[in-house]
Amino acid sequence: MTAELKYKARAALQGHWLNALLIALIVNLPTLLTEAIASFTGNDLSNRLLTPARDIFSAGITQTAADGFRTQAAAILREPGIQWMLVLQMIARLLTPALALSMLAWMIGRLRGQEDEGPLAGAFCRIRYTVKAICQRILMVIKVALWMLPGILLCTGGMVLLQIMTNDAQNASAFLIRIVELLCLLGYGLIAVLGIRAALHYSLADMVLADRPRTGALASIRASAAYMKDRKMQLFLLELSFIGWNIAVTLVSSFVGNTAGNVAYLVVQMLGSLALTVYMNTSVAAFYNDCCAAENSAGKTEMKENGREDESL
Hints:
It is built from 14 helices and no strands. It is mainly α. Among the domains are: 91 residues, no CATH class; 80 residues, no CATH class.
């Protein structure tokens, strides 16, 4: 199954790799530009917060150190450059969902033998559905979070109990502390398992919206849930099969970086990541096509059976 889907993806991309890479570059351009601007101007929030965070861990996590970190973080967030950078990053994140839908629509078109209208048309064909794409992402995040809620509640409750027991160490039983720690670990496990299951459950929502853009945001999520019934393991194994390619891209780009410098590393890393994104998403689009074909076939069979029943009556 996995090998067949990958074969379909490679066949669909044959002769269209350049357009595919250009479309993937355009889709990722807002994020790449904001990251480059943040790095060049020194307004990368994560890097700015990394230094005070290191100081806390090196000096030991105490109340005084935590208060100092909060003070430094608040001062960094008040800087105009950081605030403008956060605004640009937010705009990039708002544009990306619709651009991603456009890329998926182009990939589905390649698999169905439709005409390739070029990278610009492929990258912006679903841009008019930006609001719907954003709403769909928000709904998906909420639904996945609800799936993970049992694990989140278990972890939160365990951490609260651990804090209470730590403050009252003299009266706390070592056995009870161990039980609570195990409950916290169980909560983390539930978050991981339920989160992966939920992500697979709704993983074709983007494909549905890209293929049928007039579908509602919530309807596309429900359609994904219907398609993924009894098919989660197939998609999981398909996505798992790309781990080797991810490792290969990392190793090759690291080797090139060590021999030719940072610029060469960045170029190879970007091209490898874009090519892998195209290959993986086209394979998932092939999986989606098979799901649609199976559902259509099942629907036609049901209609025929209903027709026979009507004739017999």
